[in-house]
Amino acid sequence: MTTTELMTLKTEPFVLNFGPLHPSTHGVYRMRATLDGEVVLDIEPVFGYLHRGIEKLAEERTYTGFIPLTDRLDYICPMSNNLAYCLAVEKLAGIRVPERAEYLRVIMAELQRLVNHFIAVGTFLNDCGAFMTPVVYMLREREKILDMFDMVCGQRLTYNYMRIGGVGQDIPEEFLPALRKFLGTTPRFIEEMEWLLKQNEILLARTKGVGILPRDTAINCGISGPVARASGVNRDLRKADPYSIYDRFEFDIPTGEAGDCYERYRVRIEEMRQSLRILEQVTKQIPGGPVRAEVPHLIRPPRGEAYAHLEAPKGELGFYIVSDNSIAPYRCHVRPTSLINLTALREMVRGWKVADLIVIFGSIDITMGEVDR
Amino acid sequence: MGLAAAYWIMAVVAVLAALGVVFLRNVFRAALSLVLCFITVAGLYITLSADFLAAVQILVYVGAISVLIILAVMMTREVQQGSPANRLKIPAFIVAAVVLGIMIYTVTATSWQVASAAPLAPTTVPLAGKLFSESGFILPVEIAAMLILAAILGAIVIAREK
Amino acid sequence: MLANYGLIGLFFIIVALFSLSMPIIPIVLRYLKIVPSHPGPVKNSTFECGVETIGKTWVQFNFHYYFYALVFLAIDVLVVFLYPWAVQLRQLGLFSFFAVLVLVFIVVIGYVYAWKKKVLEWK
Amino acid sequence: MMPNLPMQAVPPDWPGGYWWHWLFFSILLIAFVVIMVMGAIWIERRGMGRMQSRLGPNRTGPFGLLQPVADAIKVLLKENIVPDSADKLVHWLAPVIAFAPVMMIFAVVPFQNGALLADLNIGILYVVAVSSVATLGVFMAGWGSSNKYSLLGAMRNVAAVVSYEMPLVLAIVGVVLVAGSLSMNDIVLAQDIPFILLQPLGFLLFFTAGCAEINRSPFDLMEADSELVAGFHTEYSGMKFAMFYLVEYAEAIAISAIITTLFLGGWRGPVLPPWLWFIVKIFIVFFFMVWTRTTLPRVRIDQLMALAWKFLFPLALINLFITAIQVLVWPDALPWGLIIVNIAIMVILVVVWSKFFKLGWGRLEV
Amino acid sequence: MSVGLEHYLVLSAVLFCIGLYGALTKRNAVIILMCIELMLNAVNISLVAFSRYVVPTLLTGQVFAIFVMVVAAAEVAVGLAIILAIYRGLTDIDASNINLMKW
Amino acid sequence: MEVGSDREYIYKSSELDRHEGQIIEELKASAGESIPDPDAWLDEEVRRNIVLTSLDTVVNWSRRSSLWTAICFPACCAFELIAAEGPRFDLSRFGMEILRASPRQADLMITAGTLTWKMAPVVRRIYDQMAEPKWVIAMGACGISGGIFRSSYNVVPGYNKIIPVDVYVPGCPPRPEALIYGIQMLQKKIAREHPIPDPPRLLQKGKQA
Amino acid sequence: MKFERYGIGIIKGMTVTIRHLLRHPTVNQFPEQRLNVSRRTRGNELIWSREKCTGCATCAKTCPQGAIEIVTATNAENNKYEVETYRVDTGYCIQCGLCVEACPYDAVFMGYSYERAKYRRGELVQTNDELLESPERPASGYYHPDIAGKLPVQTLLVDKIVEKRK
Ligand code: SF4
Ligand code: SF4
Ligand code: SF4
């Protein structure tokens, strides 16, 4: 108590742990946040709390046996992961997929996009502090889609539906009527959601201009998906590098300008509308026929490597597979959307308040299963 | 009777709380002790029929001043052991004791001219008259406002970062 | 009037007893072994999302809060004057109205100064 | 008059009945608060459930009415943990200090004409004064737990209370101007026209500031689940946590009761007995709070401050002087026509003032 | 024994002297400020007591008490501001170390 | 204040991480055998007097009707848990919609997801910090045995290596109905407990203390 | 951020929540009301048919989990190759359905029921007869369209909503 030297720091910054088990870190993400009062000076992300070694496990599973594991990568949208993996293996083994299967894949992928955006928007609004309500409404809508997934593949979350060279089973006959009914009710629901919070003053104040991700940073960090599009990066693999049969459908790619949390939220809502549009077209065009190419039970792709990517709901999802002509991949690598989208978090949150930290984090929409793999 | 009991209880608590302010080593607890003292003083005002003043005491002292003090406590370091005494302990004690002795002597030696009239019961209305009527203390009130203004300006100027 | 405050004081005693008894009952029940109690070093450590706390827990805080408290204090004192005035406005008449107008005006100068100096902004 | 409750039969000044009066009301008030809190919890959980297209608790007792009871017993028999590093005394006293003032508020709330524990002359001022003590409990909880989340929560609480005390108090001054008395009973008696109509702006300010004072959504920053885990009571378990829970709802009920008394005509109303009117009105106000909680996101701390200091406070001052002028012009009773005028004034003021300030500040350069 | 003016005055004196002792001995500036508040409160008690017992119908003492409160508030505001300003520079609120005014 | 990328943290990340690693290693070393299931009550038959039994009934009723869940959502199963909380299956009917983020106020830990060794100390700590009485439901294959990741190098083969588990709900993920069924089984278990001690036991323990 | 919309957005949001208050909730009260799950549901336990199974162990090989354990033996009496133990650890099984898909003799089915919580870890391991089909353990139609046809139609939330809104 006798020091009289001048100190430059006016107050002590202190370190606060957010996570791993925190209500709004979407799983087990952990941030060591350095705060000064309420202001976030810096964060240090700590990963690995859900590192389950999926890529390593791929090396000891058969090509088909790995599909259930892809379900657990980004567990909010397993269908997209299934699809991305199957695309990669098909590319590697040169398998052609029957027409009807392609259509089914698109249906599933787009429904999955809806599910993901329901969850993303709901939890994002929950992080803004709208106590449970948006999440609960979104969960209700999600249930409708899960019903349909349940119908085709018998599970609500881990579908294991796509197969190399097609899909697991054909859809039952009650599927398309249910889908049509769903397409009939959902636009009204989305409208209702917009009534609920889109123009809410508090939400606007909380999200507009918050957590701006500049276009250049987005590109430099390799960010993709709605987060990048909200920053004005007009890149959507469905248009930029059409896989499957996306070139047959008409849809727009909603992009934003500001790159703030509100824009991300808005882009997601718009994307839901576009997904519905694609689904409308698919249900009209879907042909009959087989749903699975003739593929041997144990696939042995020729030596080589392949990378296939697709526009998952969260962004660009890629699978890189090296084959040594055995029944299991020699090496499998996932380009995880969430992890790469997360790289810009530190830049985005510095200088904002603690509350904004949560909101910005929520607006990126990540799944820890994919981040840590 | 009831009044006497109330007085004695509150007097004892007030003195104990005041001692706590001085002798507790944990600054946060000392501040809480001060708040207790403020509250008992408000109670004493009520026994003196000053109900409005009691409310004001709680409003200003407990609601505002103590919050400010506690904030200041939290913004400074060494809360746990932060209330050491300096070397002046014994002289200060002597001074305080002498002052106390003189005051008690004066109080007890003087014969106060206690008026026997009953006190004004609700004090708010007469106080309003005192403060705001033409014949009242309107000028001091305005000066008090000036004082507050000066305090705000001064405090902001002093404490603001460059 | 004092009778009323006597009631309040007596009520306060009851409330104090009631609210003190609420944390005390579980302590009594703990001795009867109805409320479990198995303290341990981990259980009694600080909760911070399941990891150990970094640094000390009693941090010294940023004092922007202080400015709000400061302006609040000043205006709180002002309000003290407003209450008796509000009760008696009808009897006191226009003179007091202007008196209070001046009073408030003086303090508002400080408020406006604070606004202009961006003291009311959270940094 | 409707058939009277026994409480009506005991006027506060009845000499022989002093002790009876005290005993009766003390027990009544405690029972009232506890039961109302249970009702409030039930309303919140069921109402919120239904608004979220769910059901809410319905297994315990008819319609799940016993759910709060089950919660209470369970929490009572939970282990009580005091962190080693906590300031034990402060940690222990905090819930008591938070709880007692809230109970004390009810001492001056009239259930019926003259049916209140003590009809203080400074009634409403007493309420304001006593409620400011409750902050201290939260502060002690945050400080005493030696937990950073708690500390942040407590700091936010202090900031919020400090900021919202002003508009709250000034809105009350408007009511006092019209009623010409500080006594709660007199204020109710003065409301031939409920003050919500004469003082719409005052009501708006009071409701907003009241919600902020008691940490109801959208201003529930200090226990913000999604940010601060459980805010200032993160480290509290067992009965002490239950007390904070109780305080939260008791405060909500208290604010509802004060709003009812100040703005909605208290116990006055046709047909139903007065005390029932009073309770019904309390629940209506409380339901409104539940409704906002279900719908609205939470504001950020700097926006909270900006709203208080740059929006509510100036409007409260303006409201004060407008009311003063009206009272001076119509000293006997405010005419009905003023209702429309005042509502128009409110709308204009809100719209115009919205242009004047910025709600919060963005990023800081760090 | 009924409570009279002397009781209040003695109580006020006791509180005042405790405050005085604290103000003289403490090294923590915030505590010193708290002690000064204590002294002001003590003065207020005697003011109100005089008002109650000597001029029960005039309330002059209470008006004075209100002004004392205003002064106390102003004093706390400025005092704490000064403490914080010094603290910011010196990281220290030990009153005996604050010797900026010396030369 | 300069806070750039070159800014020094107040703490040393490497030290913290090393410390964490040490804890993980310790836990790994100590978690050899599975913790036995607390299932003695299944066979137990205690004769008690009526007063105690009815007191037990009340206490158990309250405990089982307000099970507040601690937040422990590591992986995919969490979404079925959330779906169970959601509008279609609605756990709030059982008074369970309150998710307490602070373990101090929670009664039940639903282990919804894969437990990795890095996460294990955290979950263990949260469990330790929960106030008694507390229960655990192991949800999903991962909670029971490590599930699909059982053979991975980084996954704890089942929560019962770390904390005692009261009810196992198989599935990957279990449907919300399955989870609700598991919760009801837990409620049945709670209904059989004896929270009020017998007088003899009371005296005996009292002496010890 | 300015306070632009003067509260109109807030009022809009409030109308949505209050409309939900009046609307019928979508809750399915589980233990009393039960949803018909999908006909292809992959329920929590495998169903095994002793008659059809030849002990070829394709299922055990396909299983990514190694949850199936088969011990075969030659029966000395009638000199037949038969399964001695067929053990599934439900605690390991992830309900991926690959075994069902792979079985060349249609001897293994996914279960249709899902209420299979247990108090003990050991009870989750099922052997031989515990795996047979029984009224409490119906088989699901996953990869078995013939069974699927007999199962009740799945309850859909979409239907419910459409009904209510009409
Ligand atoms: S049991 Fe299955 S769904 Fe659940 S966490 Fe494990 S892998 Fe995910
Ligand atoms: S369902 Fe999947 S995990 Fe289960 S036994 Fe069959 S193949 Fe193995
Ligand atoms: S694959 Fe079918 S037939 Fe072969 S062992 Fe398995 S269940 Fe039996």
* Biggest sheet statistics of chain A: 3 strands, antiparallel
**Structural class label of chain A:** alpha+beta
How many strands in all of chain A?
8
Query: Could you estimate the helical fraction of the residues of chain D in percent?
Result: 55-70%
Termini separation of chain D comes to 67 Å
CATH class of chain A: Mainly Alpha
Report the order of strands and helices of chain A.
Answer: EEEHHHHHEEHHHHHHEEEHHHH
Query: Helix coverage percent of residues of chain A?
Result: 40-55%
- The average pLDDT value of chain A, as a whole number, equals 82
List low-pLDDT spans of chain A. 1-10
Cα shape of chain A: globular
> Which oligomerization state do the chains in this entry correspond to?
heteroheptamer
- Largest contact between chains: B-E, 85 and 73 residues
Provide an overview of this structure.
The complex is a heteroheptamer. Chain A is an alpha+beta fold and 373 residues long. Chain A has a single domain, classed as Cytochrome-c3 Hydrogenase, chain B (Orthogonal Bundle). Helices cover 47% and strands 13% of the residues of chain A. Chain A has 15 helices and eight strands. In chain A, strands 1-2-3 form a three-stranded antiparallel sheet, with no helix packed on it. Chain A has a three-stranded antiparallel sheet with strand order 6-7-8. In chain A, helix 11 runs parallel beside helix 14 (354-364). The longest helix of chain A has 29 residues, at 99-127. Chain A is globular and about 65 Å long. In chain A, 65% of the residues are buried. With 123 residues, chain C is mainly alpha-helical. Chain C folds into two domains: 1-59, no CATH class; 60-123. Chain C has helices spanning 2-31, 64-92, 94-116. Chain D has 366 residues and is an all-alpha fold. Chain D has 13 helices and no strands. Chain D has helices at residues 18-51, 67-76, 88-105, 123-144, 148-179, 184-189, 195-198, 200-213, 225-228, 238-263, 274-295, 301-329, 338-354. Chain E is mainly alpha-helical. Chain E has a single domain (7-93), classed as Helix Hairpins. In chain E, helix 2 runs antiparallel to helix 3. Chains in contact: A-B, A-C, A-D, A-E, A-F, A-G, B-C, B-D, B-E, C-D, C-E, C-F, D-F, D-G, F-G. One iron/sulfur cluster (SF4) is lined by residues 75-77, 113-114, 140-142, 147-148, 172-173 of chain F.
Task: Output the keywords.
heteroheptamer, B: 162 residues, mainly alpha, Four Helix Bundle (Hemerythrin (Met), subunit A), 2 domains, 74% helix, 0% strand, G: 166 residues, alpha+beta, Alpha-Beta Plaits, 3-stranded antiparallel beta sheet, two-stranded antiparallel ribbon, 5 helices, 24% helix, elongated, binds iron/sulfur cluster
Please give a quick description of this structure:
The structure holds seven protein chains of seven kinds. By secondary structure, chain A is an alpha+beta fold.
